[in-house]
Specification:
12 helices, homotetramer, 14 strands, 5-stranded parallel sheet, alpha/beta
Chain lengths: 387, 387, 387, 387
């Protein structure tokens, strides 16, 4: 391929946290360039944001429909390859469907849609159009998460028995949504965020991580969600007992009122022969404990001969040069880009490049929200995981 | 007081793990001397063990009844002050009751008895005799656990919202009870261990730690116990959702099949203003995270002006000279001994010395086992914590 | 500014480690675009590399002189803004001088030149031309390093007494330069690397970090360098006692034969009131210990109110989303770019943007190499730090 | 042996830090009983201290000479086996010589004597009398330190190249000796402490640890000591470059003005094949890094099959039940006691029991002080390590 992929962005104007992250992730490896944007519904913000990102003025839009219409009509040598959607949850579905209809590949910030039903429709649309969709479950972009998955897949730990995944944050310990915190406002608002609060925002990440590493699926669950801060409208805390299809038992904990915690996603997986521990705050380390030998510290790093190809493919630096959240995010974009390049070039993408979250993960994430909300309200212990 | 307290021991012969630990804990501070023992029902082991501990030959016994009879008849200047019982769980109750009846104070390894009913009888006996009983829930002997409790009690964290307590071990990852491991054999045997396996052995420690630090009680719970190793007779793994009386929500995880883990008890407690984290494998550190200022690392140490008197009272060394499990155990014995000294001297023991686990903790621990086993078998989500 | 800055690159063809790092760092924030390159003296590699980076074919060069000539002649709307030089050490000086002469700003990988004398000439040239030069001492791009510097500058720790800086790597534990390792080959070759091996490659980073954080300068030193692997031509290990101008005493340790270590740069600085510890392998944390209160854990994060503006300016994500080596590198480029933008726009760059390493650091680094080599060969204890 | 060993103590009255530590260490394993003491030269303190330790009133002395005279005249069944000397440094030699002359084995707190010359005389006396002497270099009592030593001895790391040992404390960051801190007062007083301050108090521990683990000896050194706190009379900080007999290079750092540090002794040793890291604040872990495989975490624990017999012999608990400083101290006493038991019983002590520091370590420690003080004052780079 002799050019960068062309990206358009919906949402992500100035001061929107996640839009900036997507742009860094897309920029990082020099495979993608931002060429157009409907960055805000506020015309002034859209214009300012577009200019500060050096967009051509005729490719700065104020509504996504116009953008998709006009960009679809561009000649091939200018036309966007894909659209990144970083609007609040309630505004994912419509632009995603339209983008696919117009022939663009799509990147969506998670959760994929506002409702499970939308997620299923979107999945059907992707399958029908044959286009590619990346759902940015960032944490599965970390090399040591991929290493963990491969070790389970290879049977290195034996049959998996236990999964403990936890995601404590503390930033919603106060009623910040009433104190001018815009992030807090939309994330705790059922009309913009969806059925669940913490469980949707971070519980889904923890759930995705657990299914990704184990290569297994949750079969039934028992949830206990809470609104810990009086006056809040959605859960800000919860815990879920889980049973996996292949027999493992799990616990998922997610909280946004774990006062003082930043973003301390962590997972432990135990099998017959050993266990693994990975924590996002020190993401380049995977501790592996064994029944019959001393624990080992596996470390991320390009060229590390002790790691699987899925891990090293997602490293840019040798061991000891820490890569972080933005690189994990960048790995999603890079793999998505490599797979699009292969499509465009008519070659076959590597299995490592094809390993990124998409509509299946999106549907399961939305189903997780539904099932957890249902279970939490139920007096029955177990709720079957339904899609 | 002008002499050491005199201890007799039931159980704890050669090669018994916990008996040796009790002796180290009792020896450490020079307040107690072992003077008699029915260390084994095997006469040869009893004799060998007693001699290696330098007991007078006439105070080496082979059954506890004889010991209690004869020792009770000794003159005051020789008579034992208290009896330590370190037999397997099923053999706690009878000697404990008899010791109390004979006028001896009692130390019992946890769980206090084989059944909840026995625990209640023992509690009644203690109350009736007015004697003192120490239940060795070791982990509450750590200075930083006491610090955590005081910080909650003082309201430093505000109202408590979340409690996460976990206790992973890996030593039962195989069916070791069939491979000649004596510890595994009795602990997984319902006839010697009781109704529960992991939940009784280590779940009760986690439960006790959670109630001790929060100063709160579990009101209802939802348990999911497992036998992960085929052929095993008691649970080797489980998780429990908990609701506390004052409104906090909790999760308790205990596993003896967390392959590769040693003894990784850890607790996190979050309130409105901050959260705390304590882990037994690095017990001299208490990390306190705050909503409004940087996290702090509190460190155990005699004379540390940033700690409560309950913490410093239980330190023997200045900061940076790590104290461990044996010192925590020693703290239980030391506080028990100080409180007995005060009784004997007719003085008042300090509140710090009186802070050791006793019959109430024993009854609640046995009730925890009953309620967890009941809940795990139930299709109802919530089981009210009944005693 | 209404466009990205235009970068040309000298060196950094396919498989060159550091060239790829520079490109990621330059790409990351969307402020810079690579427009031309003399990426290799091997025409085929140059061509291949240029194409894979999507350069226009007429801006792919095989020698830097041609590139600088031709690019200098380009019209303003196409002309490069700056040149990045990522050739081996011996090939920094000539292209840097020529680039400055042609009116380009310059980025150079450290060490700045092959000899101290060249460094001084380059410094004179920069001063004479008034152009800007960035020397990529990556580690001073980390937000928590900047935080540490500000805390010293603000007197938060009181007068500084001690500096311990260490940089263990293990990758040269074998005679890899004879086993086909190209990185090892040039870095251990006096003709390409310079007078010093480990002390030049990583000792200079440690030295720069110590002077940057303390805001002080080394006044005299006592070095003990070693060649630990028989057959090697340059030092692979060493230690240096240091005295700082303001009275602090320091120790610097650098080794490339610390078998098993990755890239474990770490610094500790102690003053009258407290001490700080920062380690590159967990770069988002700065531990601050105090004489009179509990130790604190400062954490990187955009918007963290407990950090100085120099730290937060260099964060892209909120706390708990780890940023790493590439972001630190990206901070150097970002600040360099922001300062160039200000120049071009005729505005004033912020003090935070102007805080990047340049020719002074380059000259001091080369002087460090000279002084350390001289001291190590001397029987005198102290060698005055001369430039 | 059918009785506990009988200990007498010189020094260590109420409020003396180290005396209490020695008693806990001696008590812990039930092999030793304190029977007599000249605990203070202040009669009231001596009496009070003795009574609170339950000594018979006729074995509470106020001067050590009387004690040694009277106790030497006791009948065999009452006579002390050994004397523990825990007076300040200047008062070690005289009682130690006299105790040996009277036929008692001896335990001395380090440093062994006030001067090197005394140390040599004491060594000669021990050799002449054939009695046993324990010098309490506590840190070599830790199981993972013994593990480290065995791994070096077994060649597991290959030839040793690097030794980095550091001992930061912060408690002398102020001029506490003038503010009523008795510990600070004698330790910074040349008349009571000796030629060196920090280098004598903690530098000797670091030095001993380095020589113990490597099994090697320092051949020459280059020291840079400092008095950082104005008004102090002895060094409170220093660093030493070292060359070992077998070719390794080392750095030793010791400071008592590393503000905020507790007692952070740490050592790293690197050989051709790998490196090890041990830190006293988390003493049950030994991290071993390898050139050719992932790093391993070795953990202390009775029965751990991955450890040498020297390590497991010095563990009392299974892995995950942290043992600390007091147990390390207790290991010195336990091994000393086991070796005395063997002597008394006419059997042979195990090689593990015989592994405790004695007069050779004492002489080398005193020589370290002399050589470091000499080197620090010298303008020559290297000072040959002379005894």
């Amino acid at each position: 391929m002799n050019r960068k992929l062309r990206m358009g962005m919906i949402g992500g104007g100035k001061d929107a946290f996640i839009g900036a992250i997507h742009r860094i992730a897309a920029n990082m490896d020099g495979l993608i360039e931002l060429k157009a944007g409907a960055l805000s519904i506020n015309p002034e913000v859209a214009e300012d944001s577009g200019r500060s990102l050096f967009l051509d003025s005729d490719r700065i839009y104020t509504d996504f429909k116009t953008m998709l219409e006009k960009e679809a009509a561009m000649p091939a040598e200018k036309r966007l390859d894909f659209i990144t959607i970083v609007t609040p949850n309630f505004a994912h579905f419509e632009p995603a469907m339209m983008a696919l209809d117009k022939g663009f590949h799509v990147v969506i910030e998670k959760p994929i849609t506002f409702t499970l039903d939308e997620a299923k429709q979107l999945k059907a649309k992707v399958e029908q159009t044959g286009l590619s969709l990346l759902l940015t479950h960032t944490y599965t972009g970390y090399p040591m998460v991929k290493q963990a998955r491969q070790m389970v897949a290879n049977g290195t730990l034996g049959k998996i028995r236990k999964v403990w995944v936890e995601y404590p944050q503390g930033w919603l310990s106060k009623l910040s949504e009433r104190e001018g915190n815009a992030q807090a406002a939309w994330r705790t608002d059922p009309k913009r965020s969806g059925k669940a609060g913490a469980m949707g925002d971070i519980g889904t990440h923890a759930f995705n991580l657990a299914e990704y590493i184990t290569g297994d699926t949750v079969e039934k669950l028992c949830a206990d969600n809470h609104i810990m801060v009086p006056g809040r409208l959605l859960d800000d805390d919860g815990a879920v007992l889980m049973r996996f299809t292949n027999g493992a038992a799990g616990v998922l904990m997610a909280s946004q009122v774990a006062a003082g915690e930043e973003n301390a996603l962590k997972i432990r997986v135990y099998g017959e022969k050993g266990g693994m521990e990975w924590a996002q705050h020190e993401p380049n380390t995977l501790i592996v404990r064994w029944l019959d030998k001393p624990a080992e510290i596996l470390r991320a790093g390009a060229g590390n001969p002790h790691l699987s190809s899925f891990a090293t493919h997602n490293c840019r630096t040798p061991g000891g040069h820490p890569e972080g959240y933005l690189e994990a995010f960048g790995n999603l974009y890079r793999n998505f880009a490599l797979s699009l390049q292969a499509r465009i070039d008519g070659t076959e993408a590597s299995k490592e490049a094809l390993d990124f979250p998409s509509v299946n993960e999106g549907v399961r994430g939305m189903a997780f929200i539904d099932n957890v909300v249902k279970s939490s309200a139920s007096t029955e212990k177990w709720t079957t995981f339904e899609i």
